[in-house]
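pinned: reference chain
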Amino acid sequence: MKAVIDKDVCIGCGLCVNDCPEVFEMAADKAIVKVDVVPADKEEACKTAAANCPVQCIKVE
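pinned: its C-alpha cells
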C-alpha cells in the first residue's frame, strides 16, 4: 500500500501526522509522505488519516 498527498490541495493542518506519524510528516507548511510503502501494521492508521483529511488530499493505493 502507498500513500500520496496532493500538495496543491494540502492545507498543512497536520491531522495526518497526528493520525499516522510513521507515514506522514510536516515539511514547511505542507504534509509529506515519508515512506515509500506503508508498513502493514500502519495501513489502518493511514486509511484513517486519509478519511480524516479535511480537504481529502490523501490517496491510498
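why pinned: Residues 3-60 form a domain with the Alpha-Beta Plaits fold (CATH 3.30.70.20). Helices lie at 15-19, 43-52.
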